[in-house]
Amino acid sequence: MEEAGVAGTNSVLPTLRLFKALDEGAASCAILARVPIPEARYDKLAPIGKDIQLGAIPKKSVLLEKYEDLVGLKIAVPRGVFVGDPFDHDIRLKKILTDSYDLSSVLFKFDRVDAVVGAYDSLLFNMQRAEIEPERIGLPLIFSSAPMWVMCQPGKVSSDQRARLITATERLRSNGTIARIIKKYLQADPAL
Asked: What CATH number does domain 52-144 carry, 3.40.605.10, 3.40.80.10, 3.80.10.10, 3.40.190.10?
C-alpha cells in the first residue's frame, strides 16, 4: 500500500476474517490465491509472482499417493481454507475444522489428527513454529496450485489507485522485494 501511495494499513488476517473485512469495507484490497471464492468476488489487479500449492501433509507413518488415501484419516482443516472439489464437499472425509493453521499444527504435533490440509508453505511454516520435528512429517499430497494476486473489492479503489497498486506490485516483484518477503515468512520445500 505504501509503495503505491495508497493510504491504509497492512495486516495478516485469517481467511474468513479477511473476506469479512473486504465484504464489509474494513479493507479494500488483499493478496489472495486465485481459488474459487476470491476469483468470483474480487477484482484481480496483479500477480505477485508466487503460486501456492494446496494439499495435505500427513504424519510420516501415513502414505498419501492419491486422493482416495485420505478416506478414513482424521484431517485438520483451518476454517476459511478452500482447496476446491472434491475435497471441499467430500462427506467421506473426517475433517476437523480448526480456528487456525496454528491449531491444526498443534493437533498434528500431539497426534490428534493424521494429516493437515491447506496452503503447503503455510502449513510448513506453522509446523516449524509448533516445533514439529521434520522427521515426523510425511510426503505431501498436492491437490492443486494457485497463483497469488493483489485483489480488491469491486468499486472500492479508484482507477488511479488501481493503476498505482498494479505498478507498485510489478515494481516490488521485479526488484525482488516480494521474493524476499516470501523467503522470510514461508518455508520453501526443496522437494517441490
From this structure: 3.40.190.10
Model pLDDT for residues 37-58, shown as the tens digit of each residue: 888 999 999 999 999 899 999 9
Say if strands 74-78 and 115-119 run parallel, antiparallel, or are unpaired: parallel
How many CB atoms within 10 Å of residue 60? 12
pTM of the model: 0.78
Q: 159-175 pLDDT, tens per residue? A: 999 999 999 999 999 99
CA distance 107 to 192: 25
The amino acid that residue 2 corresponds to is: E
Domain boundaries 15-50+146-185, CATH class:
alpha beta
Amino acid at site 179: A
